[in-house]
Design a protein that fits this description.
2 domains, 199 residues, 5-stranded mixed β-sheet
Amino acid sequence: MSYSPVILNLIQALCAMPGIGKKSAQRIAFHLLEKDREGAQTLSMSLSQAVLKIKNCQECRMLTDDDLCVICSSGSRDESTICVVESPSDVMAIEDATGFKGKYFILMGHLSPIDGIGPEELGLSKLEDKLAKGSISELIIATNSTVEGDATAHLISGIAMKHQISCSRIAHGIPLGGELEYVDGGTISHAFFGRRKME
């Protein structure tokens, strides 16, 4: 039996989300249409609003609806310490699991020459400009424990050393191949506070 083209489009759109396969997309679509049309409307409006209004913070590249995100505009954060992460969800993971009071720089990915992602796509020139100003005393690298994350961390540590800035990387309590957003808070906290200097 074939579905209406409108339903098929909805299922395909839901499949675009990470971790959602065709069967999960079908279940979500039918749940929203059969039992929660009001929730579906709220979801639709929220998503539409986010797509129109959300942009990157001018300082750290976090997703925000203002020129500066909440963290960058806060006067209570330590301006001398920057934690470099791969994605906005990594910021949320660190914020939830640690008492980190510095600021962040979000790469929006990692080095991946096959996918055409190099230093420029990661905003490393912007990061280097920040380091060159001389107000940063410590750089914490919290890239994922993957081959790409390791390569990215190595490149960033070289930039930090060039500007004589203390550089450490979070400890590998994170499982090899793991991604921060899927790791429990205790493991992230242990890895964060057990970070080590980059050689």
